[in-house]
Structures
1.
Amino acid sequence: MADYTLYYWPLPFRGQFVRAVLAHVGASWEERDVDAIFALKDAEPAQQPVPHMGPPVLIDNAEDVCLSQMPAVLGYLGRKHGLIPTDAQAAALTDKLVADANDLLYEMTLHNGAQMWTEQSWQAYLPRLGRWMAIFEETGRRHGLTPEAGSMLGTEAMGIADLATYALWGTMIAKLPELEPMLVTTAPAVAGLCQRIAQRPEQEKLRRDSDSAYRDEWCGGQIGASLRAVLEAKQPHGAPRSQM
Amino acid sequence: MADYTLYYWPLPFRGQFVRAVLAHVGASWEERDVDAIFALKDAEPAQQPVPHMGPPVLIDNAEDVCLSQMPAVLGYLGRKHGLIPTDAQAAALTDKLVADANDLLYEMTLHNGAQMWTEQSWQAYLPRLGRWMAIFEETGRRHGLTPEAGSMLGTEAMGIADLATYALWGTMIAKLPELEPMLVTTAPAVAGLCQRIAQRPEQEKLRRDSDSAYRDEWCGGQIGASLRAVLEAKQPHGAPRSQM
C-alpha cells in the first residue's frame, strides 16, 4: 500500500502543493480517479472519512489520518516531516504564506470560476497580481533570499514555505508562461528559488509525470480557458504574443 | 502598552475570530482606526511590518511578532496560548476547520463582494450553506459534541477549533438572525456550543463592545446590504419575515 492516498482533480492547482511536498519527502502516493473524487465529495458528511466540501483530500494510510483543505494538509505533512520551523514566528509565517497562496488561487480563478475573465478585468487585476509577487519577494528578501541562493524564511533546508512558494509561482509560470517575464522582473529572488527547486530530481520527476497527465492545464475548466484567452490576447507587459 | 495591536475594519467578520481568541486568553489589545488600516495596507510591501495584502494584521507587542492572514494569526495565538491540541491529527483538524470557516466567509460575501446576491442566487446557495453546517456538526459529533455539552474535537478545554466555530456560526446568527433556525435545525450541537461559548463572561463582554461599535453589521459594505436584502426578502425555510 502507498504511504498516502490523494483525492484531487487531474490538474496542478491546489493539488500540486500536496504533490510537491509528497515528492519532496520521498513518500509514495496513489491518486484516485475523478469518479472516486466525485463519490467522496458528494457523499453525506456522515459518510465521509473527514467531513468536507471538496478536494484535496489526503489519507495518511499508516496513521489512518484523513484531512481536507490544502493549508491543513500542508501543516500536517510539514509537522510530520520536519518542514515547519520550530520558531513560533517562522511557523506562523509559513501558515501565512500558504494562506496567501490559497487566496491568490481564488483570485486567479475568480473564486473557482464564479465569473470569467475579460481583457478589461484582467488588465485591471494585473497590478494586484504584481503586488502578490512583491509580497512573496519582500518576505524572502527579509530572510536573505537572493536570485541565486537562500530560502523564503532563511532556513538551511527547504521547508513548506519554499515548497508552497514553488507550487504557486513555479507551477503558474510553467503552465501560464506569459506570466514568467512579470515574475522574473517583479520577484527575481522568488523566480530563482522556483528554478532551483524545479531542478531537484524529485521535482523534475513530478513535473514530467504531471505534464504527461495534465498537459497544459493549470486550474482547468471554463475559467482556465478564460485565463488563457486573456493571457494570449495581451501580454502582461503590453507586448502582443507574436512579438515575444 | 497593550499585549496586542489589531488592524481590522470596524466589523465582526474575519476580525471577530481574532478578537474572540484574544478575549478568551484574557489578553489586552488596542485596535487601530480605519485611516491607520488603509495606510498600512496601501504601503509598499517593503515598508510593511509584515508584507501583506489586507487585514487582519496582528502585532504581538512583547514578542515583536507581526502577522497577517486570519488562519495564521489563529495558529500563532493557539500555539502560544495552548489552544491547539498536541495530537497531530487534532491539530490538523483545527487548521482544517479554520480553513473551512475562511472559505465560507468568502462564499457568503461572494468573494469579498465581487458580485451581489440576488434572491435567485441566494436560494440556489442555501443547500451549500446547509452542507457547511452539516460538515461542522458531523465533525463535532464524531468527537462527542452534543447540543448540551462537549467541544468540536473532544478536548476538555475550549480550543481554537471551538472559538473559530463560535466566531463563524455564533457571530453569523447573532448578526443575521434569519439564519438561526436553519443552524439550530441542521447543526444543533454546533448551535449549542455557540450558545455556551457566548455565555462566557469574556465573550459576553466582547459581544457588548462589538455590538456597540459595529451595530448590526456583519461583513459590511454593499455585499452586506445585498445579503441582508435577500435574507429579509425570504426566510431560509420559506416563511416570510412577518410570520416569524
2.
Amino acid sequence: MRASQKDFEDAMNQVKLLKKDPGNEVKLKLYALYKQATEGPCNVPKPGVFDLVNKAKWDAWSTLGNLPKDSARQNYVDLVSSLSSSPEPSSQVEPRADEKPAGYETLVVTSEDGITKIMFNRPTKKNAISTRMYEEIMLALKAASEDKSALTVLTGIGDYYCSGNDLTNFTDIPPGGVEEKAKSSHILLRNFVQCFIDFPKPLIAVVNGPAVGISVTLLGLFDAVYASDRATFHTPFSALGQSPEGCSSYTFPKIMGSAKATEMLVFGKKLTAGEACAQGLVTEVFPDSTFQREVWTRLKAYAKLPANTLRVSKNIIRSREREKLRAVNAEECITLEERWQSEDCMNAIMNFLSRKAKL
Amino acid sequence: MRASQKDFEDAMNQVKLLKKDPGNEVKLKLYALYKQATEGPCNVPKPGVFDLVNKAKWDAWSTLGNLPKDSARQNYVDLVSSLSSSPEPSSQVEPRADEKPAGYETLVVTSEDGITKIMFNRPTKKNAISTRMYEEIMLALKAASEDKSALTVLTGIGDYYCSGNDLTNFTDIPPGGVEEKAKSSHILLRNFVQCFIDFPKPLIAVVNGPAVGISVTLLGLFDAVYASDRATFHTPFSALGQSPEGCSSYTFPKIMGSAKATEMLVFGKKLTAGEACAQGLVTEVFPDSTFQREVWTRLKAYAKLPANTLRVSKNIIRSREREKLRAVNAEECITLEERWQSEDCMNAIMNFLSRKAKL
Amino acid sequence: MRASQKDFEDAMNQVKLLKKDPGNEVKLKLYALYKQATEGPCNVPKPGVFDLVNKAKWDAWSTLGNLPKDSARQNYVDLVSSLSSSPEPSSQVEPRADEKPAGYETLVVTSEDGITKIMFNRPTKKNAISTRMYEEIMLALKAASEDKSALTVLTGIGDYYCSGNDLTNFTDIPPGGVEEKAKSSHILLRNFVQCFIDFPKPLIAVVNGPAVGISVTLLGLFDAVYASDRATFHTPFSALGQSPEGCSSYTFPKIMGSAKATEMLVFGKKLTAGEACAQGLVTEVFPDSTFQREVWTRLKAYAKLPANTLRVSKNIIRSREREKLRAVNAEECITLEERWQSEDCMNAIMNFLSRKAKL
C-alpha cells in the first residue's frame, strides 16, 4: 500500500523532531523527494555554476527524473522512518559481526539461492574504494570464483552504488614520494582490474544508486548490469587530470561507439540510467521503488540455470578477449601512473582535498 | 548431332520444373555435368575432408576427368530428358510438386526481380531445422551465390520464421552412440554456419514471426534483418545445457555490447522485435499488417542497385572478418560437441522429448 | 643579440595575425624553422613518397641540417618580421582577408576559447569537397594539431554541413586518362583520411545540416559528433557504383552493428539525425533553433578541461586502433581505385554530370 497524504504530513513533522542532524546528503534527498512529491519532476532552470547551494538542491531534485509523485511521497516517508529508527551510524572500524562475515571490513558478502552477493559497505563514504576495499574486493571475487554459486553480484549498501576511487588514498604518500605512490597504485589497480577480466562465472552489477569513476569503467567487464532509475554513471577523469581505466578505453567504444564513449570518458559527461541503458552499458533499468524486488526475482531465476553451462557460455563469449583486455589494462595503468605524477592531476587532487577540508 | 547451347539452357530450365526430387545422387551428377560443360575439367582445390557437401560436389566434378565440354552438355541434356520422362524417382520422399521446385523437400526457393528467396517450408514443425533442411539450405545458398540475383533473402512460410534446431535430430543416434552423433552434428553445424560466413552477396533475413536458437544467432552474419512486430528472438541455450553458436558469441557482443548479449545468449532472455532493433540485431521493424508489402517494396528497390557494386561493398565490410569468424565458428562447435555429451544437455533434451511424447 | 624566447613567441602570434597568405613556400620554411628552433635537427623518419604534404615538410626541416636552435629561432623571427611588413604575397590566390585568414580559399579557420574551428566555406556548392578543399583541410588539421587549442571542430558554413566529394573532381581528367585520375585520387583520399586517423587531439564535428558521402563516413573517426535536428546522413555509394571509404567499412559496423551499417553503406539508406544518434554515430542531437548556442556552450566548457589530459585520454582510446585503421584505409582506397574505373561508376557519374549540365 502506498503512503497516504496523511503519512506524508506526519513524516514532515517527524523531520522537524529529529534529534540528530541527518547530514547534507540526506537533507538534500528529503528536499528533492518533497519537491517531487508536491510539484512533480524538476521544472525550474538550472542555477549558475557558482550558486552552490541551489545547484546542489537542483541537482538532487533533477536526479529524480520522472519518478511519480506517489513514489516520491512513499520514498520520503520511508527515508524519514529509517532516520527516526536508525540508532547511530556504525563506524566502519567497528563492524557488527552479523553483517560482516569472513572478516571483511569494507564489504558484506553473502551466498544463498545460488548467488554470491558482494556488497560495498562504506555508505558514509558513498562506498568510495579505499586501499583496503580494493584488496577485500579481490579476496571476495577470488572466493566467489571458487564457491558453488552460479552467479556473482556486486552492489552497494546505502544511497550510492560506489563513488569510485577514494581520493584520500592519494594523501597517504610513502617515503618514496609521489613517484613510489604512483607505482604502487599502478600495481594495485592492475591486479584489481585483472580479477574482473579473469572472473570465470557470470558477474552481475546491481547498480542501486550513483556510480562514479572506476565503478563505472569496470562495468564493461560485467556480464549483466541492472540499474535503478536513480543510478547515474559518471567518469570525471579529465577534470582530475586522470585517464580512463578498467579497460574502458577498449570496452566503452566497443559497446557504445566512440562518439558516445569519448563524451563520457574524455569530457566527463554524466549519464542517467536510461542513457546508459540506451547505449548498451546497462542491461535494463527499473524504477527505484521496485528495483530490488524485480532484480532479485530475475537473478534468482537465472541462478537456477545449470551452473556449469552458464560458466561455459560466459567463457565462450569472454575468453576470446581476455588476452586483449590484459594488454589494455596494462597500457591504461602505465598511462595512469604517468598521469598521477602530472601537474594536472596533482593540482586537481589538491583542490579537491582542500575543498573537502573546509567543509 | 550434339546438343546446342539452346538445348542446354532448355534443359536447365526443365530441371527447375521437375515435379519430383531426383535425389542427391542425380543432383550431384547434374552439378558435375553443368560445371564441366561450362568451365571444363575440375579446376578448384579439393575441399577439406570435413566439408562434406563441397567434397561430394568436387568428387562428382573431378570424376568427369577430361570429358569435353560439348560431351558434358550432351550428357546433361540426356540426363534431364530421362528425368522428365521417368515415372517415379527412387527417392522415398513425396514432396508436393507445386510447392517444392528444384527438388527441395524443406524449402521453397524462387528467384525474380533480382532477388533469390529461400523460404523455410516446414510450417507444421514451426520451421524447425531437420538434418535434411540443414543440407538443403546449404545447397540453396550455394546456388544463390552463383545465380544472377543481386540479393538473397531467407524467410519462413507460416507463422514462424524458424524455431531453430529440430531437437528430434538428437533422437537419431547412430551405432557409434552419442559421441559419434555429437561429432557428426559438429561437422554439419560448422559447415552450415560456414556457408553464411562466406556468402558473397548481400544476405537478408525477413523475419516474419518468432525466431529461435540458431535462426537467431545466425542473424549477426546477415547484412540486413527486417522484422515483423510479431517476431521474437529467443536463444534458450542454457536451459538446454547448450552454448551459443552461429558466431553469436562474437557477433552479438560486437553488435549490442556484452551486457545485452549475455542476457540473451547466457540467460536466455527473449527479445521483442523492438528490443532487437534497439540493440542493433534488427535493421528495422514493421507492423505485421504491412510487413510483407513494405519489406518487399524496399528490397525490390535495393535489388535494382548495380549488383556487382553491392557485392564489392558487402565484401569490403565483411571480408576483413571472415578469418576471425571461421575461427569463432570452429571454437563454438568444439564447445558444443562437448556440451551435447554433457549431463546438463542430455537431461534437458530427454525432458523436452518426453514432454513432447506425452502431448 | 639573438632573438629571445619572448621574441620567438611574439613572432608565432604575429603569424596567426597575418592578413595575407604567405604562400606554401614560406609556410614550409616557417614550419621548418619552428621545428628546428624547438626540437633541433630533423629527427623523424622520412614519410612515404606519396605522403606529399608531410614529405614537403620533412624536406624543409631536413634542409636546415644542423642549424643551431637559436639561429633557427632568429631566422624565424626575421622571416615573420619581413612578412608582416611585406606589401603583397606572391600567391595567385585572392582570399578576402577578413574571412579567410591563413590564406584558405575553401575554409574559414578561427581559434579562440581553446577551440580551433575549421569551417567548410563553399556554401554555394553545398560545401562539396573540391581537390583544393581536400588539401586545405589537411593543412588546417596539421596546423590545428600543433596549435595550443584543446579541441578541434569541423563544421559547415551555410545550410549544408558538407555534400561530400565534389563529383566535378572527376571531370578534370589528366593526360594519363581515367586510370591515372583514379590513381591520383586514391593517393589524395588515402592521405586525407590518414589525417583524421592520426589527429592527436579531440576532434569534434558540429553537423549543422545535411551530410553526404565522405563527410559522413569520416564521422567514425571523430571523438564527438553533435548534430542539428536538420542534419541528415547519406552515403549513396552503390547508386554511384562506388564503395565505402573513410574507414567506415570498419567503424560503422563497430558502432552500429552490421545490420544497420549495411543499410547505410551498401543500400544507401539516408538517416535522420535522431536515427544516427540512436545508432551511435552521433553523440547528441539538438533542435536547430538552439543548436549553435547549446553546442558552443558545451564545447567551451569542455575546452577548459586540461588540454594535455584530453590529448592523453583521446589517445589511449584511439591509438590502439590506428594501425588497423591505416590498413582499412589503404584497403578501401585500393577498392575505390578499381571502382572508379568500373562501368557502374563511370555510367553513374556521367549521368550525374549530364543531369547537372542540363540544369
